[in-house]
TrEMBL record:
One of its GO terms (molecular function) is kinase activity. It is found in: Cytoplasm. Its EC number is 2.7.1.191. This is Sorbose-specific phosphotransferase enzyme IIB component. Pfam families: PTSIIB_sorb. It comes from the Bacteria. The keyword Kinase applies. Keywords: Cytoplasm, Kinase, Phosphotransferase system, Sugar transport, Transferase, Transport. The lineage of its organism: Bacteria, Pseudomonadati, Thermodesulfobacteriota, Desulfovibrionia, Desulfovibrionales. Coiled coil: none annotated. It comes from Pseudodesulfovibrio hydrargyri. One of its GO terms (cellular component) is cytoplasm.
Length: 154
């Protein structure tokens, strides 16, 4: 199973303790331009990932090529792809990374955002971005963890 998720925190307990076992993922791809160039933060985040799971820290631009290579290689393709924002997920989608379901897990509140679920607050730009992906056929899944009910309908 492949999970594509927006989460401001990227790698943290919900990912490691719930989504990894639920998806059976053997790969975690963190797509974030800033983190892709910060070796110290990568090492810190990697400490949370079980040794049996491969991790990659890539720029958003690299996602289509990385995922194509991952899916064409022999072995286990179950993966979690993490973006910190809808804008990043949209950039990857528009540049060729085709996904059908987008999990929106944690998008923190800040002034100007509207709280749409206990863990998701959206700006006007976020809503426009999500509606763009939804119009392209991407199902939006608002859940923090797998056993949560879907909390928002778009």
């Amino acid at each position: 199973m492949t999970l594509v998720r927006i989460d401001n925190r990227l790698i943290h307990g919900q990912i490691i303790e719930t989504w990894l076992p639920y998806t059976g993922a053997k790969n975690v791809v963190v797509a974030n331009d800033e983190l892709a160039h910060d070796i110290l933060q990568q090492e810190i985040m990697s400490l949370a990932i079980p040794q049996a799971v491969k991790s990659s820290f890539v720029t958003v631009e690299e996602v289509p090529a990385i995922m194509s290579r991952l899916f064409s290689a022999p072995g286990d393709h179950d993966s979690i792809i993490l973006f910190s924002s809808c804008a990043d997920a949209r950039r990857a989608f528009d540049s060729g990374f085709d996904f059908h379901v987008l999990n929106i897990g944690n998008v923190h509140y800040s002034p100007g955002k509207r709280q749409v679920s206990p863990s998701v607050a959206l700006s006007d730009e976020d809503e426009t971005c999500l509606r763009h992906l939804n119009r392209k056929g991407v199902e939006l899944d608002f859940r923090c963890v797998p056993n949560d009910p879907v909390q928002v309908r778009f």
